[in-house]
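Question: does this match?
>
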Amino acid sequence: RLRGCFTLSCGFKMDTTPESYLDLFPLEAIVYLTPDSENVLQDIDPSKVYVLGGLVDESIHKQLTLRRAREQRLQTARLPIREYMVRAPNSRNYHSETLAINQVFDVLCTFYETRSWPAALRAGVSSGKGYVLPDTADQ
C-alpha cells in the first residue's frame, strides 16, 4: 500500500492509495482490462477509469481477472490483439494475449498518443508473446 504521486512516461500522473477503486469511482465509470473479456477495447474514453490487473502466472490464474470483474459487476474489455495481430510461427507453438502491466500501459499510452492500434501494439506486445503485426509475420 503506497501513497504518492508519480508522473508516467506519457505525461499522465498516477496516484497510489490504499483505498479500493470500487470506493473511489462509480461502477459505471470503471473498465477492468482482462485478456479474457469478450469486449474489445476500441477507444480510450477519458471519462472512464481503466483497471490494469496484475498476475504473474497466467496458467494458474486463467480467467481470474474476468471472474473478479464480473463479481464486482464491472465492465470489461481486452486489448485488440487478435484484431490487429497474427500468430507468429514459433518452435514452442506459444501464443499469449496476457501482458505485464507495463506492457498494457505502453499499449494504452501509445494508442492515446497516436490513435493507432498497430503502433500501440507494436510498442507493447513483445515478439515473445507469439503475436506480430501482419506486415512482420514473415520476418
Summary: The chain has five helices and seven strands. The two ends are 44 Å apart (CA to CA). The chain has a mean pLDDT of 83.
